[in-house]
Design brief:
Layout lengths: L3 H4 L6 E3 L4 H11 L3 E6 L2 E7 H9 L20 E3 L4 H11 L3 E6 L2 E7 H11 L8
Parallel strand pairs: 1-2, 4-5
Antiparallel strand pairs: 2-3, 5-6
């Protein structure tokens, strides 16, 4: 079975903890990603996702240009070691109710894996291939 290292993204998209939520949403749209790692003083301190923006900011009627990602981010980031299987990542996401996991090697963050990444990975190994008529 494939490992998390094979499914993860290494090009980590980041923002600072003081970034307004509206700007973070635009960054996600422009970069076509569902999450951003949040840095404070050069260190990753959390993750902000589309779901965080919708549930913790938009649904609350908050001013998205004044509210910062620090107030809605998830911290700490749930992580998984890169040598674990994609099934392990799937199970962990289900157990924790998250859609993104930080990927670590000996405790150092080296990537990010999302539910979408897992779906792509599972699709590549599934048999038989599903085709459209």
């Amino acid at each position: 079975m494939s490992t998390v290292a094979q499914a993860m993204r290494k090009d980590l998209k980041k923002t600072t903890s003081t970034t307004p939520v509206r700007k973070a949403a635009k960054l996600m749209r422009d970069d076509r990603v569902g999450s951003l790692l949040v840095e404070k003083n050069g260190e990753v301190v959390g993750i902000v996702t589309e779901t965080d923006i919708v549930r913790r900011a938009v649904a609350q009627g908050s001013d998205l240009s004044k509210m910062t990602v620090q107030s809605i981010m998830t911290t700490p980031i749930a992580t998984i070691e890169s040598n674990r299987t994609i099934q392990d990542a799937h199970d962990m996401m289900g157990d924790l109710g998250v859609r993104h996991l930080g990927v670590t090697e000996r405790g150092t963050l080296v990537g990010l894996v999302s539910v979408r990444d897992l779906l792509i990975s599972f699709k590549s190994i599934s048999e038989p291939k599903i085709t459209q008529d």
